[in-house]
Design brief:
Layout: E1 2-7, E2 13-17, H1 22-31, E3 35-37, E4 39-43, H2 49-60, E5 64-68, E6 71-75, E7 83-84, H3 86-91, H4 98-106, E8 108-112, H5 125-133, E9 137-141, E10 144-148, E11 157-159, H6 165-176, E12 181-185, H7 191-202, E13 206-208, E14 214-218, E15 223-224, E16 227-229, H8 234-246, E17 250-254, H9 262-270, E18 274-278, E19 281-285, E20 290-291, E21 294-296, H10 308-315, E22 318-325, H11 335-341, E23 346-349, E24 352-357, E25 365-367, H12 371-381, E26 387-391, H13 394-399, H14 403-409, E27 413-418, H15 419-435
Parallel strand pairs: 2-17, 3-15, 4-16, 7-8, 11-12, 20-22, 21-22, 25-26
Antiparallel strand pairs: 1-26, 1-27, 4-6, 5-6, 8-10, 9-10, 12-14, 13-14, 17-19, 18-19, 22-24, 23-24
Helix pairs in contact: 1-2, 1-7, 4-6, 5-6, 6-7, 8-10, 8-12, 10-12
The protein binds uridine-diphosphate-N-acetylglucosamine (UD1) and phosphoenolpyruvate.
């Protein structure tokens, strides 16, 4: 087992470059299954464990996949299989995104039921409602969801009860090859939805309205492989913006797209952080003192739930009382107990967290409960007294490439070690203390 050890107290300086977005590349790779002709070439792909998982899912479905030099090439022109087994869905819920493509291409899809996860129960009823409206019969049993359609899916009018990112993507993919027009209302407006629609259109689809509340998709008969560059990861960018602000540093986050980050920028500015657009990124300068603010997570363009735990780390350093309300996931406060182990003055009240700052943060051994919590605990370690050890790094590796290496390049005192190496380092330092 590996852990990250952070010794607090360094201000961060320099430039860091963000990777392609995890939440854009996963649906785009699922969409490559729609091409019965030609190869898709997807560039700026981050080397994340989630990308390796979706590539395995595609291979299992009989697509040919090569991943090298941040580029994935997919040839899905052979006859596809129809099943995404639990082994993959358990590792990564986004595996369920292959369902729309498979159903449209094969008329049948069988995907293991994703079940809940650390941040909530995460049902997929809205995805299934969309498939049913397009004429699919959906059956749930033996831990699988099976969807089947006689002939082709049919265009339909669909209203989502909540602007779910995954449901918008899955239904949009299915609708590209349906017969007739599909209109989906109350859809998600995230930048990753726009990226997926752009890729689908390059494949020959006809998707309009991405980035607004209504999508209109005219079905076509066939889709082709296409070339596409993935958008920069706004959540990784936001995480490094917080890293600079929390340490009172001065960091240029290259690849951060201000329009994708407007709610985060607004909140950080309210806290007293200086943010300057510079070249193809943003420079973030942390103040000596941070001000408390209130935050409520919402679908885009509201404040992103995927930045909630990192902002919680920042608010622990702010002067005064802050409140964070989580409205997207019902259980995304698992990291609060870990923050408490670091001496944070913080409590949960229903769907909100109340923080009294600034907390006198102390290093401790803490466990990452999900991928953003992993990043947030490391950020907190940057400003805690003594050593912070963060375990359960499998979560971090789902969403961040070389997180500790990038922080170290900005001046953080941080290392990633195997448990045995850590004991060795401690014994060595004990022996040198004895000899001193
Ligand atoms: C791979 C990916 O892109 N993951 C992102 C995606 O997840 P994901 O696509 O799973 O998130 P959704 O937008 O679907 O979920 C938001 C809320 O809607 C609920 N819901 C969703 C679908 C459904 O059929 N029924 C239902 O009740 C969920 O339980 C959750 O409470 O958007 C989330 C919200 O921005 C982000 O936190 C995730 O990082
Ligand atoms: C919750 C997240 O991802 P996923 O939906 O893949 O679990 C995330 O990226 O913070």
């Amino acid at each position: 087992m590996e852990k990250i050890i952070v010794r607090g107290g360094q201000r961060l300086y320099g430039t860091v470059k963000v990777e392609g977005a995890k939440n854009a590349v996963l649906p785009v790779l699922a969409a490559t299954l729609l091409a019965s002709d030609g190869k898709s070439v997807i560039r700026d792909v981050p080397t994340l464990s989630d990308v390796y998982t979706i590539n395995e899912v595609l291979r299992n479905l009989n697509a040919e996949v090569a991943f090298d030099n941040n580029t994935v090439v997919v040839d899905a022109s052979r006859v596809l299989k129809e099943e995404a087994p639990f082994e993959y869905v358990r590792k990564m819920r986004a595996s369920v995104l292959v369902m729309g493509s498979l159903l449209a291409r094969n008329g049948r899809a069988r995907v293991a039921l994703p079940g809940g996860c650390a941040i909530g129960s995460r049902p997929i009823d809205q995805h299934l409602k969309g498939f049913e409206a397009m004429g699919a019969k959906v059956k749930v049993g033996n831990g699988f969801i099976e969807a089947e359609v006689d002939g082709r899916l049919k265009g339909a009018k669909i209203y989502l009860d909540f602007p779910s990112v995954g449901a918008t993507e899955n239904i949009m993919m299915a609708a590209t090859l349906a017969k007739g027009t599909t209109v989906i209302e109350n859809v998600a407006k995230e930048p990753e939805i726009v990226d997926l629609a752009n890729f689908l259109n390059k494949m020959g689809a006809n998707v309009r309205g991405a980035g607004t509340g209504t999508l209109r998709i005219e079905g076509v008969d066939v889709l082709f492989g296409a070339d596409h560059n993935i958008i920069p990861d706004r959540i990784e960018a936001g995480t490094f913006m917080v890293a600079s602000a929390i340490t009172g540093g001065n960091v240029l986050v290259q690849g951060a797209v201000p329009e994708h980050l407007s709610s985060l920028i607004a909140k950080m500015e309210e806290m007293g952080v200086t943010i300057i657009e510079e070249g193809d990124g943003v420079r973030v300068i942390g103040p000596e003192k941070l001000k408390a603010v209130d935050i409520k997570t919402m679908p885009h363009p509201g404040f992103p739930t995927d930045m909630q735990s990192q902002m919680m780390a920042l608010l622990l350093r702010a002067e005064g009382t802050s409140m964070i309300t989580e409205t997207v996931f019902e259980n995304r406060f698992m990291h609060v107990e870990e923050f408490r182990r670091m001496n944070a003055d913080i409590k949960i009240e229903g769907r909100s967290v109340i923080l009294n700052g600034p907390s006198n943060l102390q290093g401790a051994e803490v466990s990452a409960t999900d991928l953003r919590a992993a990043a947030a605990l490391i950020l907190t370690g940057l400003v805690s007294e003594g050593n912070t050890r963060v375990t359960e790094l499998k979560h971090l590796d789902r969403g961040y490439v070389d997180f500790h290496g990038k922080l170290a390049s900005l001046g953080a005192d941080i290392e990633r070690v195997k448990e045995a190496e850590e004991v060795f380092t401690e014994v060595n330092s004990y022996i040198s203390d004895l000899n001193a």
